[in-house]
Specification:
Layout: H1 8-24, H2 29-35, H3 41-48, H4 67-78, H5 83-103, H6 106-118, E1 123-126, E2 142-145, E3 149-160, E4 167-173, E5 183-189, E6 195-200, E7 211-222, E8 226-227, H7 233-269, E9 271-272, E10 275-276, H8 281-309, H9 315-340, H10 351-358, H11 368-380
Parallel strand pairs: 1-4
Antiparallel strand pairs: 2-3, 3-7, 4-5, 5-8, 6-7, 9-10
Helix pairs in contact: 1-4, 4-5, 4-7, 5-6, 5-7, 7-8, 7-9, 7-10, 8-9, 9-10, 9-11
Length: about 375
């Protein structure tokens, strides 16, 4: 359904993206899920269609649209039915790219942002470490001053696009004694000596995306690859969290919607005790509850998005949306599996994938528990 937040140009974009997804992505999702990756050509195709540059300025190859256009694209991309495809493209466009766009030098934008927008290069954001997750300030990867370069040592964990990324925007400690005030962001290129992919990680969901553990051993990174100012990285990371969490919330809403649609489809076809499941009150009420949860999550997420694009303080609303939408996705996809019964547990039915893909929502981009701490902190402040 249309929403007051989106203008005519946004709805035209929605139709365009939806058509592309239906024709060029959805028919191949099952195969990509089984293979554990989608073709690199998909980045170039998305870039060629102008989708990867929606939130970026024309000067660097973008279309100079707005975050609403980016939100529409990610919503419709999520409707392909594979969280892995959405995560892989989204990590480059919505998580790695914005750091360079907002805080990087013109040279960094030319070298990395422009080819990210065209789909010629894939980006990843490297923050999480084996012993550091939600507590960003506790990262242990260091970048020692080596004159005209930094010498990076450490490792990153659970990095989306980590295997195939052409570059990683990595959080490092340039002043280890300063806590969060000593964090900087460096662009570390694939092929740099000392930079290696330790392993591709095997995940519960998001199967079509690659997730990796990365290692840096005396890795020399030119100082021109520093994003913004030294020791300001923590603030840069925090500023983009709102957008990342909105993307997670939007994905949660879409995933729940698709699971409900599959449950309705199945309930109309499945016959038990001489009638379809859609005739049983218990199933009908489950669907009603699912629809109510989804619409509430959508409204809260759109409200948070409206504050964000207006440049207002959206922290509380975004955090609430992240919690509610992702928790809703867990509940709705679980109910969809339940309605399918034994078939819901079979890999041939898509609800099992929606359930698996949804589970990361309450963990990635900040756990539900951390989100609640942020809200409580605002309430008591």
């Amino acid at each position: 359904m249309s929403h007051w937040l989106f203008q005519e140009e946004h709805e035209m974009l929605r139709k365009s993206v939806r058509s592309w997804v239906e024709k060029e992505i959805k028919p191949y999702v099952e195969d990509w899920e089984e293979k554990g990756e989608f073709p690199l050509e998909l980045y170039r195709r998305a870039g060629g269609l102008g989708f990867l540059g929606l939130i970026y300025p024309e000067e660097f190859g973008g279309s100079g649209e707005d975050y609403l256009a980016g939100a529409v694209f990610m919503e419709e991309l999520n409707r392909c039915g594979s969280g892995g495809v959405s995560a892989g493209i989204g990590a480059s466009m919505c998580i790695a790219g914005p750091q360079i766009n907002k805080f990087g030098s013109v040279e960094l934008k030319r070298r990395f942002l422009e080819p990210t927008i065209s789909g010629e290069k894939i980006g990843a954001l490297g923050i999480t470490e084996p012993n550091s997750g939600s507590d960003v300030a506790s990262i242990q990867t260091t970048a020692r001053d080596g004159g005209d370069h930094y010498v990076v040592n450490g490792g990153k964990m659970f990095i989306t696009n980590g295997v195939r990324a052409d570059y990683v925007v990595a959080a490092v400690k340039t002043d280890p004694a300063a806590g969060y005030k000593g964090i900087s962001l460096l662009v570390i290129e694939k092929g740099t000596p000392g930079f290696s992919v330790a392993k591709k990680l095997d995940k519960l969901g998001w199967s079509a995306s690659d997730t990796a553990e990365l290692v840096f051993e005396d890795c020399p990174v030119p100082k021109i690859n520093l994003i913004g100012r030294e020791n300001e990285g923590f603030h840069y990371i925090m500023q983009n969290f709102a957008w990342e969490r909105l993307i997670m919330a939007l994905g949660g809403v879409v995933g729940a919607q698709m699971a409900m649609e599959e449950a309705i489809k199945y309930a109309r076809q499945r016959v038990q005790f001489g009638r379809t499941l859609s005739k049983f009150q218990v199933v009908r009420h489950k669907i009603a509850d699912m629809a109510s949860l989804i619409e509430t999550a959508r409204c809260l997420t759109y409200y948070a998005l409206s504050l964000f694009v207006a440049g207002e303080d959206a922290l509380t609303a975004v955090t609430m949306a992240k919690i509610y939408a992702c928790e809703t996705a867990n509940k709705v996809t679980d109910e969809a599996v339940q309605i399918h019964g034994g078939y819901g547990y079979m890999m041939e039915y898509p609800v099992q994938r929606y359930w698996r893909d949804a589970r990361i929502g309450t963990i990635g981009g900040g756990t539900t528990e951390i989100m609640k701490e942020i809200i409580a902190g605002k309430m008591f402040r």
